[in-house]
């Protein structure tokens, strides 16, 4: 099919930012070529496609690069509006602005905090970072409320922004000493609902494999 040549995604398997793009492409039922990057030895294509940040993910559409995961997800939604079951962003401008706000909150607060936590030994700094992360998750759980998804009945941008993070939930029990399922049952239930979607199930890595990767990185950093 033409879409196989039309779209190419450069990514790395564990990256939540890469996973977002894969979910969005799957939601739109788009075929694409996937290229797994070696981040220790980045390809010429990646460096050429994203010369500013030199990071994955990059979506190539007819050879033209689009960078940064949330921008890529919104681009996919705008360029392929008739594909998939529903748009990834709401049509109402205010609801769309809210979705973008919470997706940005996840980027700047949740992911950043989790990555910092995964690199810390036990101690005061780790406890402060853990407290910051749990407060952020509590905020997100309050935003979700009793809704099926963050957009109500519709799976969309905020869900796509956060759901890759659920693959890390299992790891928190080992390196952060807390259970998302126990402390944030609504978020845990939302994650399980999302996993029933084919787009999510086929895109998320095995949580145990993620845990092994994080443990390996922690050992290399000398924090485990």
Structural features, described:
The structure is a single chain. The protein is an alpha+beta fold and 224 residues long. It folds into two domains: 2-79, Glutaredoxin, CATH 3.40.30; 93-221, Glutathione S-transferase Yfyf (Class Pi), Chain A, domain 2. It is built from twelve helices and four strands. It has a four-stranded mixed sheet with strand order 2-1-3-4. Helix 5 packs antiparallel against helix 6 (124-144) and helix 8 packs parallel to helix 12 (207-221). It starts with a helix and ends with a helix.
- Percent of sequence in beta strands: 5-15%
Number of domains: 2
Order of helices and strands: HEHEHEEHHHHHHHHH
User: What kind of sheet is the major sheet?
Assistant: 4 strands, mixed
User: Quick one: how many beta strands?
Assistant: 4
Percentage of residues in helical conformation = 55-70%
Mean pLDDT: 92
CATH architecture of the largest domain: Up-down Bundle
| CATH topology term of the largest domain | Glutathione S-transferase Yfyf (Class Pi), Chain A, domain 2
- The CATH top-level class label of the largest domain: Mainly Alpha
Distance between the termini: 47 Å
Number of helices: 12
Structural class: alpha+beta
Low-confidence stretches: none
Widest sheet: strand order? Answer: 2-1-3-4
Q: Based on CA inertia axes, which overall geometry fits?
A: globular
CA radius of gyration is 17 Å
